[in-house]
Amino acid sequence: MALGFLNKKDSSSQEDIIEEDFVELDAKMTEERQKVVVRAESLKEFDDVEKVQDKLRANQIVWVNIKPLKQKDMTKLKRAVNRLKKTVKSIDGDIAGVDEDWIVVTPNYAEIERTSDEINTQ
After folding, report:
1. Hey, what CATH topology would domain 38-110 get?
2. Would you say the pTM of this structure is higher than 0.85?
3. Mind listing the pLDDT tens digit for each residue in 68-95?
């Protein structure tokens, strides 16, 4: 029998197994709460998209006011939003338009819940 040592009733061998094969672990559990940072940024120029990207890469949720750039140059706004979409995709985050003047971008730990009305209109 190859595993015959399992059936032995020798108390000294059981003590050796207990002392040698088990490691006592500290069972202290920590419930550390981490705060989620939510930022608000405005896109006044196309280059402002870099600030939003930096905040997003730093795991911060960012509300982005797109109205200033929208009023100034719609082409640059589209480029900026496409750039944010690529960044969001690369970090497995989420992006959604809140209304005509605001979008929200989130890192991978947050998900934007969409209502059925929003899904039907897109």
Report:
1. Translation Initiation Factor IF3 (3.30.110)
2. no
3. 999 999 999 999 999 999 999 999 999 9
